[in-house]
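target protein:
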Amino acid sequence: MAARAAKPPRFYFNLRSPYSFFALLELERDHPDVLDRLEWRPFWEPDETSEKLLAEASSGAQFPYHAMSRAKQFYILRDVRRLGAARGLALTWPVDRDPWWEPAHLTWFLAEREGLGRAWVQRAGRARWLEGRDICDPATVRELAEEIGLDGEEVAGATDDPLIREQATRALVDVVRDGVFGVPYFIHGSEPYWGLDRVAAFAASLPPAAELPREEPRQPAPTVLAAGRTTDMSHAGGCG
C-alpha cells in the first residue's frame, strides 16, 4: 500500500501573544529556510459567534482557553521585558481594554488568499509589540492591512463575511483536533513542540528541504486530566 502524503509541518501562531511574536523573529533570524515550508495556522480566543460556530461544527467542542492567574500575568510581564531586552527590542506593552481578536485574525484569511499571510502576521506583530497599536480596533486593522496591499473594504467586512467565518470555524476545529492549547505551537508529523524554547528543536526535527518525508503513523493520544477554565497550564515559553 502506498504511503500517505506527509502533512507539512504546522505553525500555530497568535497575534496577541508576545511569545508567538518572538518565535517568528527567531525563525526569521535563525531558520529562514523553514518559513516557506510551514503550514501557518491561526490560534485566537474566539468571540461569541465563533464559539457558537465551533460548537455546531464539532459536536459541542470548546476552544481550549484557560484564564491566566494574576501572578502569572505579572510574571509574563517581567519575562517578556527580559526577552525583549535580550533581543535588543524596545517593546510597548499593549493595553487590551476591549479585546476582540476576530478582526485581526480573520484578516489573516484574506491575506493568505492573496499570498500575504506571513506579511500580515509580521505587520500585525510589529504594530502590537513595537508600535503600541491596538489590533483589536477594526479601524487600526484596516489601516495596517491596507499597508501590505489588502483591500480595505474587504478587511472591514471580514467579520461579517460568511465564507471567512466558515474558514475561521474550520481553523478553530483544527485547533481542537490538533490538541493545541497555547502558542507558539509547532507540529511535525505526530510530534508537537510548544513554546518559544522549542523553536530550535522543532527546526532541527525537519529534514533537509530536498527530502520528501513520509507521514508518520499516528500515535495514541496521551491521557490528560480534565481541566477547568481557570487551570493554569502554560509556562514562560508559551501562552496558553
In short: The first helix runs from residue 18 to 30. The domain at 10-205 is CATH 3.40.30.10 (Glutaredoxin). The longest strand covers residues 10-13.
